[in-house]
Write a structure and sequence with these properties.
CATH topology of the largest domain in chain B: Rossmann fold
Helix content of chain B: 40-55%
Shape of chain A: elongated
Largest interface: A-B, 34 and 31 residues
CATH architecture of the largest domain in chain B: 3-Layer(aba) Sandwich
Strand content of chain A: 15-25%
Number of strands of chain B: 11
Number of helices of chain A: 15
Number of helices of chain B: 17
Radius of gyration of chain B: 22 Å
Radius of gyration of chain A: 27 Å
CATH class of the largest domain in chain B: Alpha Beta
Oligomer: heterodimer
Structural class of chain B: alpha/beta
Largest sheet of chain B: 5 strands, mixed
CATH architecture of the largest domain in chain A: 3-Layer(aba) Sandwich
Strand order of the largest sheet of chain A: 15-14-22-21-20-16-17
Structural class of chain A: alpha+beta
Largest sheet of chain A: 7 strands, mixed
Number of domains of chain A: 3
Helix content of chain A: 10-25%
Number of strands of chain A: 25
């Protein structure tokens, strides 16, 4: 059924939006940002900051754009003198007690108070005679500090905990200008999704201990990515400073994670920065590894595969991309193949207020992509098979001590495509340095069979290359052959051509929000 | 009768007829005085007829806004299958107002009867009476009366054998002024923080527990049985001026008059008569300076405006103020207007619920500027600042608390600018130590 559309004019631009749309959302369609604090598209609107007051023709007074729905023929002025005066009034009120500690505030540079004051606030203060309100900093929970002095009481954090996390821990305490965000006595902000309050806070009032004083917002480089923490596939942004990942933040995707990500995923990024990396291809000769250049290493791998037959086993990390898993799998096409991904299991932690959003027990991002490509999650069986296989390829898998000890005595050749220099690598015939997910472009398939791209966020160490590049080069054979994929998109195309689940999709079609695979549609 | 002093001949005692009469507090005593006849009549008439009768009487809300009561009742959806609620606003916290307290103290059954009439009219089986936390005596008396009403069949599953269920639950507030705002009151009853809600949805669509709800003031509900007993025409006839203001109004007079207290006047009575005849006028040797006629939230009137005003909804609007809750604060020539305005602003700053930015910060800031002026540190630019703050605080928030803080400041500066200037110039000694 077609939605009923309503025509409205916002700052001169006419837009047609579905009936029931709020003015603030309709304005976005018209390309007009209505300044706001308490409104957030993933939270209920209380209309308390009064920042989004706009002039609606024929209305007796200014209307809050976040809760006023559009009506046919409505004419809205966001930037009229009256609306601007009202906003300037709100900004002035918000600033009278706000410390001007931007130079030491983590939010500085991405602060909505800073932005709007800069945009249209008063140049000077009229509140010079009085001391500002002072409240001490409070420790809210494992990763959240509350700097009460900076708080503008937009209540986004309270509403997130009440309505989205459905664990009402925060509240507004006291009244009038003494009000502050309180926390229930004897409770802490330790909900598995509580870190989102830091992102939701429009100012520097709720801040992350993990990120505290680590970087200025303007020094950060951001890359769109997908959380490698579990099979949910929350869209994230990897933020780096000087090539070091300093924080992960959710990237909005209404179909996957809305505006949120869990604390487990958010804080599990240090492995992306590990320094103990394999930086050059290593060939084992006379009992010890020697660094070689890629031509030598690739030739060696090509020869190994050519000169061997029988059983091949791939032991892969569930963090490997579709491109890497697919092309590595193709390396051993003519063998009797057993391929498995290692899937660490944890507790599920749902976000109650959002359907189908949870930290999933399977703590790898690409389990479902791997399964579509012929990998199983039966790890132990694959390790047992590996003992007798003629060739074992370990694709960045994090081996347990027992597995490593067992594989050291494997009958066949062990080839490792790895990121970190683990002790057990010493017994491998060939060690090839590959990039981790922050250092490459790639694709993950989440639990709903949604294929989502991630982009490179930092440079690769030494000679490390994406695993799909390694496999692609070997498949193309020696010499300057034009067939080898040189981008993740080309690697993806090679897989999409052959694996029906991917239905001929191309990277470009996935966009930055991803697409559900045909396999999922068929399954439905 | 009357309390604390006998009714003045110029009063029209309807609601206050039994003030001071302890026997009227009991069920039997109330029945003996014609009580519960209105409810019996209402039960016989049925909801539609009751609403029509109230509409015809011209009764308007006595809590402050003056919205026609019958019309409000008619907004309640019919046949929607949802539970409806009536909420009686007995959170009388408007500074200067103390009429509902006396209704509950002396004629609790009159209020219970009115609540039952209202509940029946809007199809509600339950009425909450939200009583201000500080009202301990009215609470005790109301509790006892509700118990008695249940015991005598005036409340319960089968009210007076009519087959209708009407229950009354008394709910005590905890002393927050803002809980007298109808939507904040609903939040408070639900156990939430008493913050006003955004409208729409209006209470008649989704109010208490998200169900259709009507909120009426104590005095409004208490008037309804009288209208049913004596007829809409009688009530409509109680009018001395504008036909849109009918009936009697309890006016709480406090401040510099000889006989402060509650006075029940016919709508349209000149304020002069109220002040100088009923209340006995100013103290000897004093003259009237200013009147806040409708509780602290309305603009201040000068003596001249007050003395020529008629006491009804339109009469006071004509003079630039409002009838409000009819809590009259009378100030004579000894009053320091700047100090009084500061005191009002301080009240609002204390009671702001902290939701809306303008109110949370504006009320406190206004108070501080007033403090500075009182400390002798004011300057000419403060007028502009106060008026600009008032403009930013008016018509921009969810409820009208911040507007209420701004109103006396604006009217004070307009009408008593000289007193502000006296503080600024040093002609008047500072009355506060400072900030």
């Amino acid at each position: 059924m077609a939605e009923e559309l309503v025509n409205v004019t916002i700052d001169g631009a006419v837009v047609s939006v579905p009936k029931g749309t709020t003015i603030i959302e309709a304005a976005k369609q018209a390309g007009v940002l209505v300044p706001h604090y308490c409104y957030h598209p993933s939270l209920p609107s209380p209309a308390v900051c009064r920042m989004c007051l706009v002039e609606v023709e024929k209305a007796p007074k200014l209307m809050p754009a976040c809760v006023t729905t559009v009506a046919e023929g409505q004419v809205v002025h966001v930037n009229s003198a009256t609306a601007k005066k009202a906003r300037q009034g709100v900004l002035e009120f918000l600033l009278i007690n706000h410390p001007l500690d931007c130079p030491i505030c983590d939010q500085s540079g991405e602060c909505e108070l800073q932005d709007y004051v800069f945009q249209e606030g008063r140049a000077g203060t009229r509140y010079a005679e009085y001391a500002k309100r002072y409240n001490p900093v409070e420790d809210f929970g494992p990763d959240v500090l509350y700097v009460a002095n900076r708080c503008i009481l937009c209540t986004r954090c309270v509403r997130f905990m009440d309505d989205v996390a459905q664990t009402p821990v925060l509240n507004v305490s006291e009244r009038g200008d003494r009000a502050y965000i309180g926390i229930s006595p004897e409770q802490t902000l330790d909900h598995p999704w509580s870190g989102n309050v830091v992102d939701l806070c429009p100012v520097g009032s709720l801040i992350s201990k993990d990120f505290l004083h680590k970087a200025r917002a303007w020094d950060l480089d951001k890359a769109p990515s997908v959380c490698p923490g579990c099979t949910q596939g929350c869209n994230i942004s990897i933020e780096t400073r000087d090539d070091v990942v300093v924080r992960l933040r959710p990237r909005p995707n209404m179909d996957v994670n809305r505006h949120f990500m869990c604390d487990y995923g958010r804080l599990d990024y240090r492995w992306l920065n590990r320094g103990d990396r394999i930086e050059a291809p290593l060939v084992r000769e006379q009992g010890r590894h020697a660094a070689v250049d890629w031509d030598v290493a690739l030739d060696r791998l090509g020869a190994m595969l050519r000169d061997t037959a029988g059983a091949a086993v791939i032991l892969a990390s569930g963090r490997a991309s579709v491109e890497s898993l697919g092309l590595v799998r193709r390396l051993v096409d003519r063998f009797d193949v057993t391929a498995a991904v290692k899937v660490p299991i944890g507790d599920e932690a749902p976000l109650a207020g959002i359907p189908d959003l949870a930290l999933r027990p399977e703590r790898v991002p690409n389990l479902h992509g791997a399964e579509l490509l012929g990998y199983t999650r039966n790890w132990e069986a694959a390790v047992r098979k590996a003992m007798a296989a003629s060739i074992v390829i370990i694709l960045d898998a994090d081996l347990s001590a027992e597995d490593a000890a067992a594989l050291a005595t494997a009958a066949g050749q062990v080839v490792v495509l790895g990121t970190v220099a683990d002790e057990w690598l010493r017994s491998a015939a060939l060690v090839l340095p590959i990039t981790n997910m922050a250092e490459e472009n790639g694709t993950y398939v989440n639990r709903d069979l949604r294929a989502q791209r991630y982009q490179q966020a930092k440079s690769q160490p030494g000679m490390a290359r994406p695993a799909w590049w390694v496999a692609g080069e070997v498949l193309a054979g020696p010499g300057p052959d034009g067939d080898a994929p040189s981008t993740a998109a080309e690697a993806f195309a090679l897989i999409a051509d052959r694996v029906p689940a991917f239905g001929g999709l191309a990277h470009g079609e996935l966009g930055f929000g991803g697409r559900t695979l045909r396999a999922a549609e068929v399954a439905r | 009768m009357g309390y604390p002093h006998p009714s003045h001949p110029k009063e029209t005692p309807v609601l206050s007829k039994y003030f001071g009469d302890a026997e009227a507090r009991t069920f039997d005593g109330w029945v003996k005085r014609g009580g519960y006849e209105g409810l019996r009549k209402a039960l016989a008439m049925g909801p539609e007829a009751v609403i029509e009768e109230i509409k015809a009487s011209g009764l308007r809300g006595r809590g402050g806004a003056g919205f026609p009561t019958g019309m409000k009742w008619s907004f309640m959806p019919k046949g929607d299958g949802k539970p409806h609620y009536l909420v009686c606003n007995a959170d009388e916290s408007e500074p200067g107002t103390f009429k509902d307290r006396e209704i509950m103290r002396w004629t609790p059954h009159g209020l219970i009867e009115g609540c039952a009439v209202g509940a029946m009219a809007i199809g509600a089986e339950r009425c909450y009476i939200y009583i201000r936390g500080e009202f301990t005596e009215p609470w005790r008396i109301m509790s006892k009366a509700v118990e008695e009403a249940y015991a005598n069949g005036a409340l319960g599953a089968n009210v007076f054998g009519s087959g209708r269920r009407i229950d009354i639950t008394l709910h005590r507030g905890a002393g927050a002024y803002i809980c007298g705002e109808e939507t904040a009151m609903m939040n408070s009853i639900e156990g939430r923080r008493g913050n006003p809600r955004i409208k729409p949805p209006f209470p008649a669509q989704a109010g208490l527990f998200a169900m259709p709800t009507t909120i009426n003031n104590v005095e409004t509900l208490a008037a309804t049985p009288h209208i049913l007993v004596h007829g809409a025409a009688w009530y409509k006839g109680l009018c001395l001026s504008n036909p849109k203001s009918t009936g009697t109004k309890l006016v709480s007079v406090c401040g510099h008059v000889l006989r402060p207290g509650n006075y029940e006047i016919t709508m349209g009575t000149p304020m002069r008569e109220l002040l100088y005849d009923m209340c006995g006028g100013m103290r000897p040797g004093r003259t009237l300076k200013a009147v806040i006629p409708g509780g602290s939230s309305v603009p201040i009137m000068t003596a001249e405006e007050a003395e020529s005003a008629l006491m009804d909804y339109e009469g006071l609007v004509e003079k630039g103020s409002m009838l409000g809750s009819a809590g009259m604060i009378v100030m004579d020539d000894t009053t320091d207007m700047v100090y009084q305005i500061w005191r009002l602003a301080k009240f609002y700053a204390h009671e702001s619920c902290a939701q809306c930015t303008q109110c949370r910060e504006g009320t406190a800031w206004t108070t501080r500027v007033m403090e500075r002026i009182l400390a002798g540190k004011g300057k000419e630019a403060d007028f502009q600042l106060l008026l600009d703050l008032a403009d930013n605080m008016t018509g921009k928030t969810i409820c009208v608390l911040s507007d209420s803080c701004a109103a006396p400041v604006v009217s004070g500066i307009q009408k008593f600018r000289g007193e502000f200037e006296a503080y600024m110039s040093g002609a008047r000694q500072p009355s506060l130590a400072g900030v």
